[in-house]
Amino acid sequence: MLTTTFLLYGANGYSGELIARYASQYNLHPILAGRRKEAIEPLAAKYGLPFRIFDVNDTTALLTALKEVKVVMNAAGPFDQTARQIVEACLQTGTHYLDINGDISIFELIKRFDDAAKKAGILLLPGAGFDVVPTDCLAMHLKNKMPDAVSLKLAFATLGGALSHGTATTMANKLGEGGAARRNGKIVHEPLGQRGMWVDFGPKKLFVMSIPWGDISTAHFTTGIPDIECYTGISRKVYYFLKLQGLFNWALRTDFIRKALKAKINRLPAGPTDTQRAKAIGYVWGEATNAAGEKITARLTGPEGYTITVHASLIITRKVLNGDFKTGYGTPAGVWGEGLIYEIPGVIKPFNN
Predict the structure, then answer these.
(1) What residues does 348 pair with on adjacent strands?
(2) Quick one: which of 153, 169, 290, 338 has the fewest CB in 10 Å?
(3) What is d(CA 110, CA 155) in angstroms, rounded to the nearest whole number?
(4) What are the boundaries of each domain within the chain?
(5) Measured distance CA(106)–CA(84) in Å, rounded
(6) Do residues 70 and 43 touch, judged by C-beta distance below 8 A?
(7) Which H, E and C letters describe 160-175, residue by residue?
């Protein structure tokens, strides 16, 4: 009989709750898990699902929970506080690890467990959500169209969306730490918003700035392209303000500033409403260039990020439970190809200039 059960850790977060809510559409039945019983138990009762309460730092409890399932989906950010513990436990229990992380450092961390994962016969795949499924698939699409590409630019923007508490908190934790790009195959640090430009997303031209998106790590693994830059849509006023960030990075890294921002975040709604998500539009753009200076571009249009995260994470979970995976460290397009993104409802196939 096909296994449809998986462990969803961080089920009480904004994205975790959405994954729990939509799981039945994919004939999946998560065991909801998290640290706080008062947050997890009502959610489990609401959806008629089993639950487990434990902290990932309690190794015995973590191992016990993982032994029950073939797959764990980690939706509990900040992921620098949860990913390593769960990955190391998965290697002991033979459980496949998935998450919806988008942090370069976490991708690089988990990649180091590639050999151990192959020996354990499991898949380690961070970035099973909006970070980084659409951009990873577009990167592979461009690589397939231009096998000799030596540089890659990726950009995304959302019209009508909003941030969840988890995403906003993760961003607050990274304040003052700057940006990143990949040069000659190596990740290099640079100021946040080092570059800005206009991008034609197809239906609309938008201004974008460079950011340390997860593809700085994952797109290189997927495509082998040595130079990679990532961008996100932003107003030009904010962009020019951020150009001065180097003058006050020291202040942004202080506990006082970060705690103040997190307190403000906690007073906001948990994330976009269902109506906001339904109306929002997400755009993804990519450009590959070869050594001769020839360029090709491609674009995707589809739902906003949280909606993509829900469907992508559940589609990937179902694939792994069905035995459709590769062992070791993987990226979404690296394991399932560029066509993975087309399985998400509402995504329009890319087109090239």
Answers:
(1) 301
(2) 290
(3) 24
(4) 5-130+307-343, 133-305
(5) 8
(6) no
(7) CCCCCHHHHHHHHHCC
Written out in words, the top-level CATH class of the domain with range 133-305 is alpha beta
* Half-sphere exposure of residue 23: CA atoms within 13 angstroms, side-chain side: 24
Each residue's pLDDT tens digit in the chain (353 positions)? Answer: 467 999 999 999 999 999 999 999 999 999 999 999 999 999 999 999 999 999 999 999 999 999 999 999 999 989 999 999 999 999 999 999 999 999 999 999 999 999 999 999 999 999 999 999 999 999 999 999 999 999 999 999 988 755 433 443 444 344 446 789 999 999 999 887 889 999 999 988 999 989 899 999 999 999 999 999 999 988 877 776 666 555 455 445 556 544 554 455 455 556 788 899 899 999 999 999 999 999 999 999 999 999 999 999 999 999 999 999 999 999 999 999 999 999 999 998 776 66
Q: Is 333 in a helix, a strand, or coil? A: helix
Residue 3 host element (H or E) = none
Beta carbons of 288 and 151 less than 8 angstroms apart = yes
**What's the distance, CA 26 to chain centroid?**
20
Q: Which residues are bridge partners to 297 per DSSP?
A: 287
Residue 307 structure tokens:
């909606």
Output the CA angle 162-164-166, nearest 5 degrees: 150
Q: Three-class SS string for 231-274?
A: EEECCHHHHHHHCCHHHCHHHHCCHHHHHHHHHHHHCCCCCCCH
pTM: 0.90
Name the residue type at position 171: M
Question: Residue 131 corresponds to which tokens in the numbers above?
Answer: 């970070």
User: Side chain identity at 290, as an amino acid letter?
Assistant: N
For 127, what's the count of Cα atoms within 13 Å in the CB-facing half-sphere?
Answer: 33
Fold observed for domain 5-130+307-343? Rossmann fold (3.40.50)
- Closest by CA position to 182, among listed 147, 125, 148, 222: 222
| Mode of pairing for the β-strands spanning 71-74 and 96-99 | parallel
CB 303 within 8 A of CB 197: no
Instruction: Count how many residues are written for the chain.
Output: 353
SS3 72: strand
